[in-house]
Design goal:
about 25% strand; six-stranded parallel sheet; 12 helices; about 30% helix; binds zinc ion; Quinone Oxidoreductase, Chain A, domain 1
Length: about 350
């Protein structure tokens, strides 16, 4: 089969490799759509190294058709499925407290085991047994279903930070993740959504996704503008959808007293930042992170996409066959793309 093999930092290309060997209970999926994530780019460029192996196959946002059921009678060959790509152990202290996304023994597809930038991908028996394989709701396209993974992470982020009816929300960054935050905040009943983003194209996309105001941080002071747009009070919730520690202070300074801040985007390993701790202290702010997703959030994400409440297809700006993986990455890295999908028929 063909696969985009990551051989080292900055070294990836499509080549012919052996198809995955299946152990008893493993499922085999013919990949129909896999989308490129910011995390894939960070891994390729060496900005994320935890859990990364060389050589390996990346790709954790995907859907496809079952090619081998692994003996599981609830599935059939040819069935359309999506996979929640993180497998929790179910018994560590994080799992028993209901935070399976923070499982100490987490096994993630596209990291610890090979992912979906390939013709076929293996889902280990553990992931099938734990209910991580989801049949696609009727009528849901493969590429839209691939976006259930990033949407799940966004749902997790907003559950942590708490976006409620009537809240004012600022989203810093309008890449695919920022745009999903905008759509989800709108769906949750946010009364005003303000987006800060340098690229004009992405500011347009933010307005289309439901933002009420967009700010170009190169032209304006974002904190002052957000305060002006909220009658001087500041927003209820600020979400950092760009992994820039400098933005954390902007976020802290643009929320109202008792406001909430989500450091949603990942940062470069080892990065430290100076935080305005007095702003947190005196205004009783809540600052939270967000990592990964749960099976419940994945099921919800599939439903929200299938019902059209979240418009996932609007995010896919480019499509490439697996053979052109290098060109797909180049496109994903330049500013004119929103989400790049690797598709096959
Ligand atoms: Zn991702
Ligand atoms: Zn666990």
């Amino acid at each position: 089969m063909k696969a985009a093999v990551l051989k080292a930092v900055n070294e990836i290309g499509c080549e012919t490799v052996a198809a995955p060997t299946l152990a008893p209970g493993d499922l085999l999926i013919k990949v129909r759509a896999a989308t490129i994530c910011g995390t894939d780019i960070r891994i390729l460029r060496g900005r994320k190294t935890a859990g990364v192996r060389y050589p390996s196959v990346l790709g954790h946002e995907f859907s496809g058709e079952i090619a081998d059921t692994g003996g599981h009678s609830q599935f059939h060959v040819g069935e359309a499925v999506a996979v929640c790509p993180a497998f929790a152990c179910g018994s560590c202290d994080a799992c028993t407290r209901g935070a399976e996304n923070l499982c100490r023994n987490l096994v993630a597809m596209g990291y610890e085991i090979d992912g979906a930038f390939a013709d076929y991908v293996r889902v280990p028996a553990q992931g099938v047994a734990s209910g991580n394989v989801f049949p696609l709701p009727q009528g849901l396209s493969f590429e839209a279903a691939a976006l259930a993974e990033p949407l799940s992470c966004v749902i997790n982020g907003q559950e942590r930070v708490g976006v409620a009816l009537g809240d004012t929300v600022a989203v810093l960054g309008a890449g695919p993740i920022g745009l999903l935050h905008v759509q989800l905040a709108k769906l949750s009943g946010a009364s005003k959504i303000i987006v800060s983003q340098r690229s004009a194209l992405r500011r347009e996309a933010a307005l289309a996704a439901g933002a009420d105001h967009v700010i170009n941080p190169q032209d304006e002071n974002v904190v002052e503008r957000v305060r002006a747009l909220t009658g001087g009070a500041g927003v209820d919730v600020a979400i950092c959808a760009i992994g820039d520690p400098g933005l954390a202070n902007d976020a802290i300074r643009m929320v109202r007293p008792r406001g909430r801040v989500s450091l949603f985007a990942g940062f470069v390993k080892g990065l430290q930042a100076e935080l305005d701790v007095n702003a947190i202290h005196y205004s009783e702010l809540v600052v939270t992170g967000a990592f990964g997703l749960t099976r419940r959030q994945f099921g919800l994400a599939l439903d929200l996409i299938a019902s059209g409440k979240i418009n996932a297809p609007s995010l896919i700006s480019h499509r490439f066959p697996l053979e052109d993986f290098t060109a797909a990455v180049a496109t994903a890295e330049q500013g004119s793309a929103i989400k790049v999908a690797i598709t096959s028929t």
